[in-house]
């Protein structure tokens, strides 16, 4: 018998609701918050207020687009964390109240695991997801991890950033160059017309499969500071080459560790996930490396790279099958509890 799962995502500045019938996506609605652009980053208090305004309309549209009534839902999955606590409280509170009114179970979802499980959402009939075990490079503004995925409920972190995330490095580099927020997509766009070898930036020497990007951010800042002393127009004259070079360096760091993880485990099923997985340079270089390493690569659809509720719903679906439900007393958490 089929199940209908409503997913709720509110970890940062996107309010999203989605409905899945088993693994098949029926709707995936996202309301973004443009107010943060003028501040150059997400303002937590403004984000939580916007979630309160958006949550009910977004859920209504998701149910309407899925062509089902609320009484047909079998469970409600929601992002418990990690994320901004105020934003998470809105989604958690709504999920608990809605489920209580419908007398159906709630399912708590880890945001990072959900990005990985987005690869199992069935957009079209016949879609074949990754086979277990597979490796997933999860890259976003707050997290950078290499995860060995043994099953929907069994994931092992093999490597992670010891300081800043790759997405943060993109955004910081963009801010230094005076690009508008969010900076990552701006760098990706400029890099397409730039020379990735125009400027060389240092690559950290970190043991094992862990990452570090704080040193790269600092090196980029100091390099531009020194060049601006010589030529005040340096950034403006070299934006495309600077973007291509910093992007090339970040991707090289990411993929060198991923390649090592594949060799150490013998796993050749490779996926990428998270906001930075939308980066065109990263996607192309993963495909190029796949040919050399004989990998089978899984790239998420662009709608699943950013925060969305379909990935929460699919995570909830797998837990629903195991009857892994959460109590009404559950509370969100801001920091990762990925184990």
Structure summarized in a few sentences:
This protein has 339 residues and is α/β, with parallel strands linked by helices. The protein has 10 helices and 10 strands.
Write the layout of secondary structure elements.
Layout: E1 4-9, E2 14-21, E3 24-32, H1 44-66, E4 75-81, H2 85-102, E5 106-110, H3 111-117, E6 134-139, E7 144-151, E8 154-160, H4 166-176, H5 183-191, H6 214-230, H7 234-237, H8 239-265, E9 269-273, H9 280-293, E10 296-298, H10 309-321
How would you characterize this protein structure?
The protein has 339 residues and is an alpha/beta fold. The protein has 2 domains: 4-123 and 307-321, ATPase, nucleotide binding domain (Nucleotidyltransferase, domain 5, 2-Layer Sandwich); 134-300, ATPase, nucleotide binding domain (Nucleotidyltransferase, domain 5, 2-Layer Sandwich), CATH 3.30.420.40. Helices cover 42% and strands 19% of the residues. The protein has helices at 44-66, 85-102, 111-117, 166-176, 183-191, 214-230, 234-237, 239-265, 280-293, 309-321, and strands spanning 4-9, 14-21, 24-32, 75-81, 106-110, 134-139, 144-151, 154-160, 269-273, 296-298. The strands form 2 sheets. A 5-stranded mixed sheet has the order 3-2-1-4-5, with helices on both faces. It has a 5-stranded mixed sheet with strand order 8-7-6-9-10, with helices on both faces. Helix 3 packs across helix 10, helix 4 crosses helix 5 and helix 4 (166-176) packs parallel to helix 6 (214-230). It is globular and about 65 Å long. 47% of the residues are buried.
